[in-house]
Amino acid sequence: MSENASIYAQSGVDTAAGDLAVELMKSAVARTQGPEVLGGVGGFAGMFDASALLGYRRPLLASSTDGVGTKVAIAQAIDKHDTIGQDLVAMVVDDIVVVGAKPLFMTDYIACGKVVPERIADIVRGIAGACEATGTALVGGETAEHPGLLGPDEYDVAGAATGVVEADRMLAPDRVRDGDVVLAMAASGLHSNGFSLVRHILAERGIAYTDRSAELGASYGEALLTPTALYTAPLLRVLEDPELAGADGTSAVHVLSHVTGGGIAANLARVLPRGAWVEVDRASWSPLPVFRHLAELGAHSLESLEGAWNLGIGMFAVVDAAKAPQLAAALTAEGLDTWVVGAVSTSSRDLAGFEQGAKGVDGGAVRLVGSYAG
């Protein structure tokens, strides 16, 4: 260690640990990178050759940025950090595919109180593995040590990604039609939303993350860290399948919705055109055991939690009714359990009790009806 680095280390910043973390993650990052990535790991800027975009008639770039939220507190509590990276990629990249875009590249940012090389490497290996699974190049990132601001075992993660879609193939509310069928795709669990409520429920009951749950078949921490499902690669294969195109030659999938913060109805409403409405049939699925158990612990009804948790639906697809059975079968064959939950209507009706738009979008209206399957 140089004298300058030694002086810096006295303030709590260990540059040597940061260098070791980079060495531990390099091979995982390299597996995400094809010939489009220039410069490798460690440069000031990640470089991506955009020559492939010359083949597009009108390429539209799609971008997204997000984090994992307070789910990281559970990873820190049980010292398990190899799944948080997938959560981050899913939260970012699966927002990009919602408009029909193919992800190109991603960068990540990790802020921590102390660089523990093996912990940072675990996080980045998770990011890299999910990037590889979604066809996204991990072109760069930053690990920042903030002693005094964060505790030695505390960290937070964030990421940003860019994708591309041909303009006339972009998925948007203006493609939705009266009679379109709404398909739901299964979630793997809580994904990465609503964890402040989860943590509150467990704290109120005096339950530790290391406590074992008979209902969940694991410790609470392990069950809650089930990584967010990755939808991008299967969805892109279905979107690009000519056998699943509509009458106009474009995909029979008209719009997608990623069920994240805000819950079920709000996320579907924001991708519907104004004047369109959907009643989502609760009887079409049974919420996963983790949701039922947490609701019971908190003395909440499942219905009261629909604005906080996904309750087992990770993604919606609004599709051409004539192709709905084939699309549901194709998505299920791709590993995304898919079923019909409702249909779009544009008829005039009283929308009292519907969730209308969300996150600044003046969209359609959605409400959940009926009772959940047992």
From TrEMBL:
It is found in: Cytoplasm. Gene3D superfamilies: PurM-like C-terminal domain, PurM-like, N-terminal domain. Its main location: cytoplasm. Residues 60-165 form the PurM-like N-terminal domain. Pathway: Purine metabolism; IMP biosynthesis via de novo pathway; 5-amino-1-(5-phospho-D-ribosyl)imidazole from N(2)-formyl-N(1)-(5-phospho-D-ribosyl)glycinamide: step 2/2. One of its GO terms (molecular function) is phosphoribosylformylglycinamidine cyclo-ligase activity. It comes from the Bacteria. It catalyses: 2-formamido-N(1)-(5-O-phospho-beta-D-ribosyl)acetamidine + ATP = 5-amino-1-(5-phospho-beta-D-ribosyl)imidazole + ADP + phosphate + H(+). Keywords: ATP-binding, Cytoplasm, Ligase, Nucleotide-binding, Purine biosynthesis. Its EC number is 6.3.3.1. Residues 177-347 form the PurM-like C-terminal domain. CDD domains: PurM. Pfam families: AIRS, AIRS_C. Belongs to the AIR synthase family. PANTHER family: TRIFUNCTIONAL PURINE BIOSYNTHETIC PROTEIN ADENOSINE-3, TRIFUNCTIONAL PURINE BIOSYNTHETIC PROTEIN ADENOSINE-3-RELATED. This is Phosphoribosylformylglycinamidine cyclo-ligase. It comes from Leucobacter allii.
